[in-house]
Specification:
Keywords: Signal. By secondary structure, this protein is mainly beta. The chain is built from 1 helix and 35 strands.
Length: 388
């Protein structure tokens, strides 16, 4: 992903990486993120148990440094995909971690020493004559040029904050030219890279700037962020792979902009717009949201964690992955969950951790992304594992 140029990538690497994305994710019937409060600039401090998701892959990270992985793991025999049981499995090889985030082409690891590592999951081919192979975890490789990092945000683009409040960005795979420092950003407090590879930067003074990884369908080599006018007093950013952004202000209000597909920004939609994206160009007040703790997004749906630990959804339901999509900008509660502390969403499934250390999942399960080995989808949260 981040460590190889086009000349360094082998044809096998391209094939396996493409297969991982299209086979492991697109076979779900269609097509981190991790939702967390604003991060202090101390790399060793994390929530006790956090979750991250992208596509069908999922990660749990504990404050003790344990990393668990499941979802989308399959092998190929005679040209046929066979998904593994896909229950959460501990990854003993990963040590001294602060956070691990799922992304479009594999997990990214932040270690206690402030270094950042790419952790590949790839197909090991049995022979060059057949596409048969087994999916395996590669040894993490350090991303050179990043040090003293305290926060990462990985989705369809990659970004990091260092201990001095500078922001670093890098392009994926064959576009990789190394990490680049945004030239006009100091005092960064939080970052959020969304599913459109658009980065939001929250500064200590509550102002917000943005930077786009791409410009006119080409990688953006202008490493200057653009301040968002008239957006002040912000204390937290949404996370996830949605094609939009939301922010929480100091006064408790929530503002959103970008793609309102399915009503995921809580704004009204027309009948036609249920199937076609509606773009909201400027930050707009989401009147239905109050007392919000954190927000995570996916395509056409938004999960909202409130301060009382209750969990709510806007846009499509989490398990809604078959036509016809209905869309609904109204806020609806996710029943059966109380005292939620961490949330994440893949394309068509969601994860939640409750105060008692229990992991819950619901939504699509064609690739084992719920982690219960049943491969049966669920409209309601089901208990997967207890981490206490």
């Amino acid at each position: 992903m981040f460590l190889r140029s086009s000349s360094q990538q082998s044809r096998v690497g391209k094939w396996s990486r493409s297969l991982l994305l299209t086979g492991g994710l697109s076979l779900l019937l269609a097509a981190q993120s991790l939702a967390a409060p604003v991060t202090e600039k101390v790399a060793e401090k994390t929530a006790e148990i956090t979750v991250s998701a992208f596509g069908a892959s999922n990660i749990v990270h504990t404050s003790g440094g344990e990393v668990w992985y499941w979802g989308g793991l399959f092998d190929i025999s005679d040209g046929k995909h066979t998904y593994r049981d896909n229950r959460p499995q501990i990854i003993k090889e990963l040590k001294d971690t602060v956070s691990v985030q799922s992304s479009s082409v594999g997990p990214v690891v932040l270690k206690k020493d402030g270094t950042v590592w790419q952790w590949d999951i790839d197909i090991k081919r049995k022979s060059q004559d057949k596409p048969d192979g087994i999916m395996e975890f590669k040894a993490p490789k350090q991303i050179e040029g990043l040090s003293n990092i305290v926060k990462i945000s990985i989705s369809n683009g990659s970004a990091a904050i260092d201990k001095d409040g500078a922001v670093w960005v890098w392009h994926p795979d064959y576009y990789y030219t190394g990490p680049h420092k945004l030239t006009n950003i100091t005092g960064a407090k939080d970052i959020s890279m969304n599913g459109d590879a658009k980065l939001l930067i929250l500064k200590e003074d509550g102002s917000v700037s943005e930077w786009n990884s791409y410009n006119n369908m080409q990688t953006n080599d202008n490493y200057t962020a653009t301040p968002i006018k008239d957006l002040t007093g912000v204390v937290a950013l949404s996370a996830g792979q949605g094609r939009n952004h939301l922010v929480i202000k100091k006064d408790g209000t929530v503002w959103g902009w970008g793609n309102n597909y399915g009503g995921s920004l809580g704004q009204p939609i027309t009948t036609a717009a249920k199937e076609l994206p509606t773009l909201i160009e400027r930050p707009t007040l989401v009147k239905s949201l109050t007392d919000v703790s954190s927000i995570t997004t996916s395509v056409g749906r938004t999960l909202v964690l409130k301060k009382d630990g209750s969990l709510w959804v806007m846009g499509y339901d989490v398990d809604e992955y078959n036509f016809p999509y209905t869309g609904n900008p109204e806020l609806r509660r996710i029943e059966g969950l109380k005292k939620v502390t961490s949330i994440a969403m893949g394309h068509y499934h969601a994860l939640a951790v409750t105060e008692d250390g229990k992991l819950w999942a619901w939504g699509g399960n064609k690739a084992g992304q719920l982690g219960d080995a049943s491969f049966k989808s669920s409209k309601t949260p089901i208990l997967i594992k207890s981490f206490k």
